[in-house]
Task: inverse folding
């Protein structure tokens, strides 16, 4: 555990610090400049975190008062399990703070939230060439061999 890093649920006053990390996360996946997410999606995402009826949640990692990491997760039902599952949708740590186990801590927080909520599984996906992320993921989870397909509508 990284003693200088604290993790807590996101708060309304975090938006100005959260936004650059959100943009950095999206840029990593090719969503920047002409392909950036519309502001309406960013705003809707932000609002989901603060609405009690939403199954979408967020936590931030702080180094002192500075937000240096984010994680977003979604609870949903499953046709193959009796209890909800948790999809770890977004995970990002600022480049200057990588290598300090912050990503692992954020994953552990999501797993604890899922356990507390009675979920039976936490899962996530990443790009095949995300070697630094996959180095961590291979230590904390089992790669199921799944390939993700998407059909845009």
Result:
């Amino acid at each position: 555990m990284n003693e200088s890093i604290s993790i807590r649920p996101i708060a309304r006053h975090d938006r100005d610090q959260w936004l650059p990390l959100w943009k950095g996360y999206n840029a990593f996946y090719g969503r920047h400049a002409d392909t950036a997410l519309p502001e309406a999606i960013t705003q809707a995402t932000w609002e989901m975190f603060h609405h009690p009826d939403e199954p979408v949640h967020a936590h931030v990692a702080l180094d002192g008062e500075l937000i240096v990491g984010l994680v977003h997760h979604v609870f949903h039902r499953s046709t193959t399990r009796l209890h909800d599952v948790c999809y770890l949708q977004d995970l990002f740590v600022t480049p200057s703070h990588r290598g300090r186990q912050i990503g692992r801590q954020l994953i552990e927080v999501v797993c604890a939230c899922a356990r507390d909520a009675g979920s039976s599984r936490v899962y996530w996906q990443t790009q095949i060439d995300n070697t630094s992320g996959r180095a961590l993921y291979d230590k904390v989870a089992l790669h199921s061999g799944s390939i993700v397909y998407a059909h845009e509508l």
